[in-house]
Design a protein that fits this description.
Oligomer: single chain
Domain Thioredoxin: 1-134
Order of helices and strands: EEHEHEHEEHH
Number of domains: 1
Protein name: Nucleoredoxin-like protein 2
Organism: Oryzias melastigma (Marine medaka)
CATH superfamily: Glutaredoxin
Number of helices: 5
Amino acid sequence: MAEVFADLKLMNKAGQLVDSREALSNKIVGIYFSAEWCPPCRGFTPVLSDFYTELVKESDPPAPFEIVFVSSDQKRKGHDGILSEEARIISQRYNISGIPTLVIVKGNGDVITRDGRADVQNKGPACFKSWQSA
């Protein structure tokens, strides 16, 4: 993940900035392209949140998995042009043409699947083992 999010600070759910290298080290990462204005996104986001909770928060040991939210919202409170530019670059890198999209990547940024949304919806946490073996 170092090359994809190199030198970026990510904002966690608590609104704190965290170092991307530290937060994503040795993890499979779901890059979630979404927007608040998008009805299908609003439907999938709680499903993804429950998936994450079951896989990471309620598992012992927690699965080595993290989600990075990449917003397609034009103006989000507290977000500036730099963040928008970073989102555009990441979207281009993974050839994102629509939202919601969940791209699952290895630690080096290589794509495991571009259809993480279907995996999560259809298989639930069981899909994580197939991601690990990819």
